Amino acid sequence: MLGGSSVARVTAVFSLTFKTQALLTSPFTPYQVELSDEVLRLRDSFGLTFKEIADRLVEQGYKGARGGELGPESVFSIYKKRTRRNARKTKQVTWVITDFRTEIDSDDSIE
């Protein structure tokens, strides 16, 4: 069209795939979050051994799974599971765009 204007609609069509393990975490109960937060704090901030952590948590009234008493093995398990979970949640997401194409409709009836 000479000296005038025209309208075109451009549409992008593509496939988007993303890969992450952050969605694969099962939720912790509020008690599990509180307990694992305390385990991480005592281990990472104060460098306590798992036995020292277990002793301190028992003194504070914490219980293990299914109401049992906390021992060093349980504390180690809590620590290991929580650190793995945190690592999964902070892992980078991989995005891949494939099959990208544009479609142009230059019909003058487009407003």
Explain this structure to me?
There is one protein chain. The chain is an alpha+beta fold and 111 residues long. It has one domain (9-105). It is 39% helix and 21% strand. It has three helices and two strands; from the N terminus they run βαααβ. It has helices spanning 30-44, 50-59, 72-89, and strands spanning 9-19, 94-105. A two-stranded antiparallel ribbon has the order 1-2. The longest helix is centred in the C-terminal third of the chain and has 18 residues, at 72-89. The two termini are 16 Å apart. The relative contact order is 0.28. The mean pLDDT is 85.
Spans of 5+ residues with little confidence (pLDDT < 50)?
Answer: none
Binned, the helix content reads 25-40%
What are the secondary-structure elements, in order, as H or E? Answer: EHHHE
Strand order of the largest sheet: 1-2
Kindly report the average pLDDT value.
85
Described by strand count, sense and barrel closure, the largest sheet is:
2 strands, antiparallel
* Beta-strand percentage range: 15-25%
When the domains are counted, the total is 1
Distance between the termini: 16 Å
Query: What's the total count of β strands?
Result: 2
Computed over alpha carbons, the radius of gyration is 27 Å
Q: How many alpha or pi helices?
A: 3
| Envelope shape | rod-shaped
Which class best fits the helix and strand makeup?
alpha+beta
